[in-house]
Amino acid sequence: MPRNIFDELGVSGTKHTFGQVSEEYLTELKGTKAIKVYKEMSSNDSIVGASLLAIDLLVRQVKIAVQSANDDQESVEKSNFLRENWGDMSFTPKDFMAEVMSMSPYGWAFFETVYKKRQGYKEDGSSSKYTDGKIGWRKFALRPQDTLYEWVFDTDGGVKAMKQQDPNTFKIYEIPIQKALLFRTSTYKNNPEGASLLRHAYRSWYFKKHLENIEAIGAERDLVGIPMAKVPASIMASDASPQEKAMLEAVENVLRNLRQDETAFICLPSDTDSQGKPKFEFQLISSSGTKTFDTDKIIMRKSREIAMTVLADFILLGHEQVGSLALSANKTDLFFNAIQTWVDAIVSVLNQYAVPRLFKLNGLSLENLPKFVSGEIKSVNLDVLGRYLQSLTLSGVQLFPNEILEKYLKQIADLPLDVK
Predict the structure, then answer these.
(1) Cβ-Cβ contacts under 8 Å for 329 (sequence gap 6 or more)
(2) For 46-74, how does the pLDDT look when each residue is reduced to its tens digit (9 = 90+)?
(3) Is residue 204 one of the residues assigned to a domain?
(4) Are residues 367 and 400 in the same domain?
């Protein structure tokens, strides 16, 4: 019997067990463990933090506009309705875009679409600027990555829902994908968790983290010295009495916890042996000579590797006393283009899922729907642009008078436009 042409014969291939995605081969980066690691990387590492901050600030600058499908009255009315809803939510579009970019460290961001009736002012948080009674967006509510309990998959490997656990009450909530928006850095194998932007930086971060700890310990030991105590051999013997073992443990605790601060002190017994020598002695041994490895260079190299994985190594230009202006421009352009690609992907999800659902709930036609379009992320080097315009002029190209070109040049330089 021939199969129905609408049947799906294959599967996405995403490996999952009991609702947990198991694509990662490193144990420490599987499931909820990965979320904790990426949270630590984002919160504690200066290079990771600076890179993510650069992404966040750039995304906040992007202007999201509404574009009508056609110029006819119906299309214009639809675009006006969409524009009204975009600006009528309980948070600003810029804040929403910034929350979506939480997918950078975690690989994904899951939002529940919360609706409201547009019935003017309400005290329950569902206020609207409009009173037409239509259904509108109240908010796109982020369901934080660290509240993920498990994913619900269908037989084909598609995502049916996200199960979320309240960290306060431990109650489980199931949010169907039809009521949600899932943003991902990668859709490979339809993995709902995408791929963290920090995944390739993990190895460099791991070594950098431990090197910094070792460096700090080494600096402390160099400044303070290595504590050493001389104690009677009897208390170190294997057959020492419980009292002697307790005495040895007390001495070891003193050595282990010794710090140079305002409360530092050592108190030793004044007992002497038969020859009049103290039974207990204490001294600090200073380390001499230079180290085989320059930890500063290694840590800097690891920092550079981390920045490179997120295309943000331009933030290190100047710190290493290397790098030309042209190199900086090339690196920033690459970084801006990457951010632009992510913003376009965010807009695509809104257009594909959020917009049709909104119009369908209001009983409106799904033909010729308006769509969101993103502005450009770019940084114009006015010095380079000026030299280019000068070269064109010297070669005989007639640039001015040109009202459109003049307006553009004034806009990118933040110069006042002519008021007419």
Answers:
(1) 381, 384
(2) 888 888 888 888 888 888 999 999 989 99
(3) no
(4) no
